[in-house]
Amino acid sequence: MSLQIRNINESDYHSVAGLVQNELGYSDLTVERFFHRLSSMEANADHTTWVAVKSDQVVGFIGLVKGMAYELDGYYLRIIALAVSHTHQHQDIGSALLRHAEAYAAKLGISAFALNSGLQRMAAHAFYEKNGFVKRSFGFSKDVSSSFDFL
């Protein structure tokens, strides 16, 4: 059966939550919190989420956010998540999701992508490099939720 890539809908949320928990390793993420986050993203015009569907089953997804950067003219797209079910990996589903995102970028006149990938995700790094991405930097993060005590 052929692969279909389409906009996410609410009936896909459970499947995508499972991909985030199992394939991306965020097992502590509750479905309720994920639903809230995804609903907020879907209400924001700068966020886009597509699912890859095969035999009426969600087998992958990609999430993007449109942004601006000081070093670029115009907009760029940041891939904020990309996952394919382990039972469907190495079938070019991830690459198909990237090509779909590239076509979307071209339609919007966007010529740059960015993403972060955890240091331990060596297979993901190889996948992105195979698909034309170049390692250029390290990503850093910091939890500042406890920094608000002074307010």
Taking the alpha carbons of the first and last residues, their distance comes to: 56 Å
Average pLDDT across residues? 92
Task: Label the structural class.
Answer: alpha+beta
Q: What Rg is obtained from the alpha carbons, in whole angstroms? A: 16 Å
**Major sheet: size, sense and barrel closure?**
5 strands, mixed
Beta-strand percentage range: 25-35%
The number of helical elements comes to 4
Question: In brief, what are we looking at here?
Answer:
31% of the residues lie in helices and 25% in strands. It has 151 residues and is of the alpha+beta class.
Walk me through what this model shows.
There is one protein chain. The protein is of the alpha+beta class and 151 residues long. Helices cover 31% and strands 25% of the residues. The chain is built from four helices and five strands; from the N terminus they run βααβββαβα. A five-stranded mixed sheet has the order 1-2-3-4-5, sandwiched between helices. α1 packs across α2. The longest helix has 16 residues, at 93-108. The chain is globular. The mean pLDDT is 92.
